[in-house]
Design brief:
alpha+beta; PH-domain like; 2 domains; four-stranded antiparallel β-sheet; 48% helix
Length: 163
């Protein structure tokens, strides 16, 4: 039996390792903010010290777990360009495989927020008439995102003409 998430004849193109670095930075940032909030609240509210220590321990245990999970998830993102469609996979625990036929694409856009720009990455969003097959590929190097946008737009126009 063929494995449903195996590459479709081509190899999976991974996203940039900068996606994992960005997500790791977010985990650290959230942990620091939570620890600061716990520290400030411990000075302002009359709650037993055990509660504050418990909150700090919870944050210190959750942060490394989140670090591992976001890194693992980022490594599972990938895409494969084929002649008639684009395969996108993601998810470490709950895997997802999306196949988008080029002829069904309505438009392709590239997005990069301030943090993504700082890490030199962007996301490519594929939009189709069906929201179930609209897809995105986060964490692509900015030049690869522009190349993929142009290629997908070109392929979408040429294959939609045959419909």
């Amino acid at each position: 039996m063929k494995e449903p998430f195996a590459p479709p004849g081509e190899r999976w193109e991974p996203v940039s390792p900068a996606l994992a670095r960005l997500r790791h930075a977010l985990v650290v940032g959230v942990a620091v903010v939570l620890l600061a909030v716990v520290g400030v609240l411990s000075l302002l509210l009359p709650v037993p010290a055990a509660a504050w220590v418990g909150a700090v321990v919870l944050v210190l245990l959750a942060a490394p777990l989140a670090w591992v999970l976001v890194g693992r998830n980022a490594r599972w993102w990938g895409y494969a360009e084929r002649d008639a469609d684009l395969y996108i996979r993601h998810g470490a625990f709950f895997r997802t495989l999306v196949v988008v036929p080029y002829g069904r694409m309505q438009y392709v856009d590239v997005q990069a927020g301030p943090l993504e720009q700082a890490f030199g990455i962007a996301s490519v969003h594929l939009h189709t008439a069906s929201p179930g097959t609209s897809a995105r590929i986060p964490g692509l190097p900015a030049d690869e995102a522009a190349r993929l946008r142009d290629r997908l737009t070109s392929l979408g126009e040429s294959q939609a003409a045959g419909l």
